[in-house]
Amino acid sequence: MAAVVRSARTSDLPELQGESNFREWRHYILEHARYCGLEDFFDGTAEEPIHKDDKVQYNHRRKRAMSLITESIGRAWDDVEATGWDPDTETDPKILWDLVHAVARKLPHRTTTELLNDITNASVGEKQTICDFNISFHRTCVRLAERDIVLPSKAKVIFMMNALRNRFPLWHAQLQEDFEEGHLDWHSLQAQIRHASWLDRHHGIQFSRA
Q: In the 3-class helix/strand/coil scheme, how is the chain assigned residue by residue?
């Protein structure tokens, strides 16, 4: 059985241990969400209302949905944070829900050389979302760090910029210019990545800075 986290706000939640109890954790969270009428925040159908009075109730429900996830993901926190997700600015439970799904799944074995090749030759696939690519990139960095190979922030910026070049040439050109002028670092690049992921998810807009 999964460990349980006591929460005054959300009742008892099973703690996500990883691949071993992911299905159990997911089932429990979704059942709790349905019981509380929060399932729209997990399936992506929640829409922020226009009227002020309705927004108060909406924000209350959104925070409850977010707490269901944040208070129960346990050791998955490190992997989620490695994706660039910022708890201080990101308020959409669906984005966090999708990130947890991505980082909790079992990863195939890769040699150190293969992981280094994955980073240096990274590229965003034609049908790959920016969010999925970012998660994959970060997880590779984390796996390398576990083998005592910690990439400098500037190196990660260069590898990620190169990965965007074929799919997003205009965006890549602007990033390259910003980097050469000293205006782009890992933090600001991740801010752009998160914004691009948001545009892609909510509006289906292919992000590029012209």
A: CCCEECCCCCCCEECCCCHHHHHHHHHHHHHHHHHCCCCHHHHCCCCCCCCHHHHHHHHHHHHHHHHHHHCCCHHHHHHHHHCCCCCCCCCCHHHHHHHHHHHHCCCCCCCHHHHHHHHHCCCCCCCCCHHHHHHHHHHHHHHHHCCCCCCCHHHHHHHHHHHHHCCCHHHHHHHHHHHHCCCCCHHHHHHHHHHHHHHHHHHCCCCCCC
What sign results for the dihedral spanned by CA atoms 194, 196, 199, 200?
Answer: negative
Is residue 5 very low, low, confident or very high in pLDDT (cuts 50, 70, 90)? very low
Cα(158)–Cα(119) distance, integer angstroms: 10
pLDDT in tens, 127-147: 888 878 887 888 788 788 878
Whether the model clears a pTM of 0.85, i.e. scores above it, the answer is no
> Please, how many CA atoms are within 13 Å of residue 133, restricted to the half-sphere of its CB?
24
Beta bridge partner(s), residue 13: 5
The residues near 194 (Cβ < 8 Å, ≥ 6 apart) are 84, 85, 86, 89, 90
CA distances from 81 to 139, 142, 207 (A): 10, 11, 23
